[in-house]
Amino acid sequence: MLLSATPPPGARPAQEVRLREEAARHRGLTPPRTHPLASITWLGPAASNPALAYRVTGDGAHLAESRRWIEAAVRLPHWGRAHMPDHDLDAGWLLHHLSLAYRWIGDDLPDGVRALLRYKLLLQGRRMYEFAVASEGRWWSSSYWQNHNWICYAGLATAGYVLGKEEWTQRAKDNLGTVLDLMPADGSHAEGVVYWRYGVPFLAIHLDLLKEAEGVDWWERGGFLANTFRYRLHQTAPGFAFNVDHGDCHDRRSGHSAGLYYRLAAQYGIPEARWMGDLASGELLWQEAAESGVRPGILPEAYLEYLWYDPSVPAARPTETRAFFPDLGLLAARTGWDEDATLVSFKASPGGGHTAWETSAKHRDELGWETLNQGHHHPDSGSFVLVSQGAFLAVDEGYSNRKRAAHHNLLLVDGQGYADENRYHVYKDIPYERQARQRDVLVGAETGWAHATAEIAAMYDPALGVRRLDRTLVFTPSGRLVLLDLAEAGAEREWTFLLQTDRPTEPRPDGSRLIRSGAATALVRQFAPHDASVTCEVTEVEANPTSSTPELRLTRTLHTLRSTAPRASDGLFLTAVVPGGEPAGERIECLDGHGVMFAETGESVLLSPVARRIRTARVSADGAAVLIRAGSAPYVVRCTLLELDGHVLLDVPEPYTGKVG
């Protein structure tokens, strides 16, 4: 498709309009005569989009526009200025786009321009190739789970196929095979939605090039590409405009890639991906373009939307409301997809996810290579994001350079977050054993419930002697949230519960706190401990999200609710968060275990994630959780016995998770 500029058969009027508009968007700008300090990635699509528009329409104005930007790019002695000139993202982007422009319109360019473009592509490709060889085992050359790797090798591959440089294409192909084999098969991405949107399109580009140029079809290899749309879908906020911002996210609006949605829809027959592509390139396009902090942004993808759109794939609005991605330990659950629905996203895993953590350790031991670049990963295992009524209520920090657990919805021990944090590469060189994980996961569209327990004790300084720090999160069918935090240490410690919001929480007469974001609200009620000290503080987070623009600074203000229990060797926090301002629930009296009841919805949550023994006036259970909703069958987690209102509903020798009855 890309090399021949040949899309799937069928009409694509909306995509052609997009292409024409994008081809003309820069006509009022004067190309730079010297290299700006900021990134020049945008110069590539400024040339390739009008080049494709000329191929499609035959309009000479598009040819002239493409030539303007080609001449500007080839005049620059280096591609990239502030960070790794010729060897990183600027060069990767321009190699890809200008190589396509050369392929599409080279024969229609004046001889001198064509020759100069070819020379410049050969020069920049050689520089990129030699750097990749020389730096193997360090940085992007073998950072298999990182967007720089995918973009730079895709750029090198594009130039190699267009110029006939087999040495370049073979190296890029070998890397691509390794990436596909090592990416998590569940489709999740530890760098977060923004870098998914920025980097994964280049994996699809490379696969497209490989199939067209060599006849090699690797679209099913490894499983990541086949499943990654589902990951992206479940990191979409209700209403579809915003994204959940786990990992480094410049903002909550930089998440859509209509071109990639179309390609995944066409390759795997995903109606929801086709639907999302139409939405992103239509109703959401201009607001995404205006508010996104990631450049060049969504508008330059017009060439991909035109070439990857397949009108034969039907479109269908998403309906699935629960998902779990085991590699990243990511649980996502929502009450629906409309803007006023409620969503929670809850994660816990080793740095980079299980596959990357395990495999990079082998690379380090066997090859002496550092293959897991963790600059965009956060100390956020056990944290969650809550969205409801069209607003973010429990929030994440977004992008930061000095990453800290205190910026997330987590827990501090003696005021300390994760060991070795407060730096950019927060997981670099830490012991292999320092891993978080999820256990006891219950999820599925038919349940209405979602449950998981994050084990995060290993993430704290061993000197603190934390033997256990388990966070259990339950999302009820009506969208209420129950959190149970259980902590143990070898000595008395001060345990602090953190909740991050965009505005200060407001105290209520009954001791609860009100979260307010625009018209959206949620009540937070902490049932235990009774003697906690509660404060609300301002937390400032600063970041420079791009090394290519060193003077750029983003500052984010969080409002941190801190609930600190008196010093003790054991800690327990039982918390309910109820969107919409309804009553915040009531605590259930338990002889064993811990419970919260929401009378207005008939929902009861009973938890015992460690002892697995629950005893109340109505319930006798040996299990981690019993989840009850009036008029429906109960659900259990790792349960062997359940007696409800005097009736034995479950009695099995092995722990069972799921619906009872």
Q: Brief overview, please?
A:
The protein has 14 helices and 25 strands.
Walk me through the structure.
- By secondary structure, the chain is α+β, with helices and mostly antiparallel strands.
- Helices cover 30% and strands 25% of the residues.
- The protein contains 14 helices and 25 strands.
- The chain has helices at residues 13-24, 43-57, 60-75, 89-105, 111-134, 147-163, 166-182, 193-214, 224-234, 258-268, 271-281, 285-291, 302-308, 354-367; strands spanning 322-325, 330-334, 342-347, 384-388, 391-394, 411-413, 437-442, 450-455, 466-475, 481-493, 495-501, 506-507, 513-517, 520-528, 533-543, 554-564, 568-579, 586-588, 594-598, 603-607, 614-615, 619-622, 625-629, 635-644, 647-659.
- The strands form 4 sheets. It has an 8-stranded antiparallel sheet, with no helix packed on it. Strands 18, 19, 20, 21, 22, 23, 24 and 25 form an 8-stranded antiparallel sheet that branches.
- Strand 7 (437-442) and strand 8 (450-455) form a beta hairpin.
- Helix 2 runs parallel beside helix 4 (89-105) and helix 5 packs across helix 6 (147-163).
- The longest helix has 24 residues, at 111-134.
- The protein is elongated, with a radius of gyration of 26 Å.
- The model has no long low-confidence stretch (mean pLDDT 96).
Structural class: alpha+beta
Helix content: 25-40%
Radius of gyration: 26 Å
- Sheet-strand content, in percent, reads 25-35%
- Placed side by side, the strands forming the largest sheet appear as 7-8-9-10-17-14-13-12
**What is the multimeric organization of the chains shown?**
single chain
Number of helices in the DSSP assignment: 14
